Amino acid sequence: MVYLREYLDPSYVLFLDENDKNAALNRMIDCLNTSPHIIEKEAFRKAVFEREKIMSTGIGLGIAIPHVKMKGVEDFAICVGVSKKGIAWESIDNHPVHIVFLIAGAAEQHAHYLRILSKIILVLKKRERREKLIKAKKAAEILDLFENL
User: Which of 61, 79, 108, 148 is deepest in the core (most CB within 10 A)?
Assistant: First the structure.
């Protein structure tokens, strides 16, 4: 069973005030690049933007999940970004994004990678949880919402 809380750390929780997707992604990548799990930092940045060019990671409901699986990442690292005002993201529902999960995974961790993605989507389907994330003022409040999940 995947427990998201195991992958979340207060130093990788950001309150975003950026107005556009690229600025938000760059800030989140800069944050996640401090992780010891990401070895090839510029390759990670490039991979995130290349993935976004293929298809927007804005999945609707105010959620975006940019994610890459690559060599140069030793283990999973996740950054959570929350925007109260919303970010234009070219989402499938054309609504602004308020919650962003940036995921870095190792190339050989495919099955676990899919379980993490699925769990994030499952957890964020609950409107109440999304609303609490957006209203949070501290990283600890955000992390508490993923306790035992």
Answer: 79
Three-state SS string across 120-134, please? HHHHHCCHHHHHHHH
Which active-site residues does the annotation give? 67
Per-residue pLDDT tens for 76-86? 999 999 999 99
**What share of the chain has pLDDT > 70, as a percent?**
100
CATH of the domain at 40: 3.40.930.10
- Put simply, whether the predicted model's pTM sits higher than 0.90 gets the answer yes
- The residues, any chain, with a CB within 8 Å of residue 36's CB and separated by 6 or more, are 74
Q: What average pLDDT does the chain have?
A: 96
The token pair at 122 is 């499952």
End-to-end CA distance of the chain: 9
The residue segments making up the domain with residue 45 are 4-144
